[in-house]
Amino acid sequence: MEGRLEGGGAGACLTAARARKALPFIFLIALLANAALAAEEPYAIQHQLVTIYEDGAARVHCRLEADPLSPSVNLSLLGETQQDIVVTDSAGVPMGYSPFPGGISVRTLGAAGANVAYTTHDITSKSGKYWSIVFNSSIPSWVAFPYGTSIISLNAVPVSIDTGGGRILLLMPAGRVSVTYVLGFVGTPDHAFLIISDAGSTISEIKAAGINVSSAAAALSDAISEFESGNYSGASELAGHAKTIALQTNETASHASAMIASARDAILKAESEGRTVGLAEARQLLDRAGSLYASGDYPSALSSASEAGAKAAAAITAVQAYAPYAALAILGVASSAAIVLRLRGGKKALKGYVKEFHEVDLERIANEGQLREEEFRLIEILATNGGEAFESSVRERMGLPKTTLWRTVKRLEKEGFVSVEKFAGQNLLKVRTEYLKK
Known about the structure:
It is a single chain. By secondary structure, the protein is α+β, with helices and mostly antiparallel strands. The chain has four domains: 1-40; 41-184, Sandwich (Immunoglobulin-like); 186-316; 319-435, Arc Repressor Mutant, subunit A (Orthogonal Bundle), CATH 1.10.10. The protein is 50% helix and 22% strand. The chain has eleven helices and 17 strands. The strands form four sheets. Strands 4-7-2-1-10-13-12 form a seven-stranded mixed β-sheet, with no helix packed on it. The chain has a four-stranded antiparallel β-sheet with strand order 8-9-14-11. A three-stranded antiparallel β-sheet has the order 3-6-5, with no helix packed on it. The chain is elongated.
C-alpha cells in the first residue's frame, strides 16, 4: 500500500514537471495565434466621406464594420498627421482608441462597428491658384468640395457626381484619387481666367498629339471674346464647354485609330486564310475611314472602320461563296440534259449539232479564278447544260442584255475558262477542256 502511494506520487511529480516545461511553448503558440488573428484585421470600411474646406483642411468620416469578438482593430487613416479624432459606436457612444503612426487602434470588443472622424491637412496642397487633393483608398470615397469650386482635372472618371446644394460632391473609385480644383465663385474674372487657361492648356496638349481640335478651339475663342466683353459667367461656361469638346474629340479619335488598326488586322487575317470574297468592300471602307480620320471627322471614321472590320470578319472563301451555286448546278445536270435531248429531236434542234455532256469542275474554277458573280453564274449554266450551251439560251436564262453578256463571255474567254465556237451562225459557249472532269 505504501509502495503504491510512492509510485503514484512519483508519477504526479513527473507529470507536473512536464507541464512546467510545456508552458513556454503553449504561451508562444497562443501569442502566434493572436498575432495571426490580428493580422487578418477583422473589419471592413463601409463608407468614407472626405469634406474639403476652403483653407485646405480635410475632415474625414468613415464607418467600419467590425467583429464583436475582436478586442480591437487597427485602422489606417488618411494623411501623416490627424487632429480632432472622434470614435463612436452606432449609437453615438464614445469608444476607446489608441494612436499609432499612420492610424489608430479602436477597442471594438462587443461592438459591431464604429464611426471614425478626424481632420488632416496632409492630403491637400496648393500651387498658385490651383488646389489638389491626393490620397489612396481601398473603397470608393465621396469627396465634397467647398462652395464655388470648379474642377480642373481628375485622374479617374467619378462613379457618381452630385451638384445639389451648390457644392460639388464626387464619388471617386477605389485606388489613387487625384483631383485639381480652383476656388472662386462663377462670374468673377479670376475664376473665368483660370477656366479659360485650363481649357487652353488641354486643347494645346491634344493638338500637339496630332488631333484636330478646331471645334474646341472655336469654342475657346468665343469664351475669350466673352471674357473681353466682361461676361465672365458666359466665358467660364464656354471655356468649360471647349475643354469638354477637346476631351471628347481626343477620346473619339483614340477609339477611331484603334478601330482602324483592328480592321486592318482583320483584313490581313482574312487574306492569309484565303477569305477574299467580301474583302473588296472591307478595303474600301477602311480607306474611307483613313480619309475621314485625316480630315478630322473621327466619329465617321470610327463608324467606317467598325464596318470594315465586320466585313472582313464576315469574308468567306470563293468555294464557300459559290458552293450553293455548285450544288444547284450538280443537281440540275440530269434534268438539263434531258431537256436538251428533247430539244435535239424538236423543231429548234440545229441540224448537224451533236450535244456533248461533261461534268464541270466548278470547285477548281472557284479556287483558281477571282470571278464575279455573273461570271460564275454563266459557268454554272454551262455546267448544268453538260459544259456547253448556245449564247442565245444563256442570255435568256440570265436575263442580261446582249452586250452585257458578250462582255462577260469575253472576260471568261480571256481568263481561259470558256471558249467560243461558231455553229450555224450562232455562238456556242463551251467550258474549256482542262476544267472538265475526266
